[in-house]
TrEMBL record:
This is tRNA pseudouridine synthase A. The lineage of its organism: Bacteria, Pseudomonadati, Pseudomonadota, Alphaproteobacteria, Rhodobacterales. HAMAP family: TruA. GO terms for molecular function: RNA binding; tRNA pseudouridine(38-40) synthase activity. Formation of pseudouridine at positions 38, 39 and 40 in the anticodon stem and loop of transfer RNAs. Its EC number is 5.4.99.12. It comes from Oceanomicrobium pacificus.
Amino acid sequence: MARYALKLEYDGTGYAGWQKQADHPSVQTALETALSKLEPGHAGVTAAGRTDAGVHATGQVAHVDLARPWTPFRLMEALNAHLKNTGVAVLDLAIVPDDFSARFSAVERQYLYRIINRRSPAPLEAGRVWRIGHRLDTEAMQAGANHLIGRHDFTTFRSTLCQAASPVKTLDALDVEAVPLAQGQEIRIHVRARSFLHNQVRSFVGTLARVGSGSWPPEKVAEILAARDRRACGPVSPPQGLYLAEVRYPDPVFSGFPSGDPPDPAAG
């Protein structure tokens, strides 16, 4: 028996989130179905984070225990073959120690939220961004975001369905980046912390969008945070702009070149 860590990318459109559900398609079910083609009766996969319905990932991490020996490259190739047309792909794969946990060994999770800020629709980005037609002031958004960095009681930005034991979290970074577009700008909001509350990032983004539109001054974010009241929060932003971008561990897990690669023909 060996434990394997998988780095995953997926399009969350059409999925009810990461976690498997009885009556709705999930990313976990798609992956476990592919694994069952290789090893029926495996114990299932554990992920670093449970993304919600419609949320995407470019760097989700999961682990699985398999009895059959595999080289990482061969397992990655076999899984991707069975994941064809699911919107899920294995980007990297590694053999890890038996005590490695994709969830509990993680020391940092990084999320990206993408806003297309222009008047015209964004047909090529449908389902992958939040389009806002009125101009947003990214400097004001950053000024508001700065009030959230550090260790706080984030009750205001916590879903009423959140099951975390405490609303107190440490936010390491909340950076608002503006990327010029021909007819507007793309706003990328980068968020880093060890762990997050349910809907915390999307709640941040909805509040900052109000600041960027001029409806609220940046200082109001501090008042909202101090209120510790969910009703003070801005609207929760839609899920399609959110990406689980990276999960970090104390030691590097992935090399970028899974072992067991076939020889390079160009090497002679």
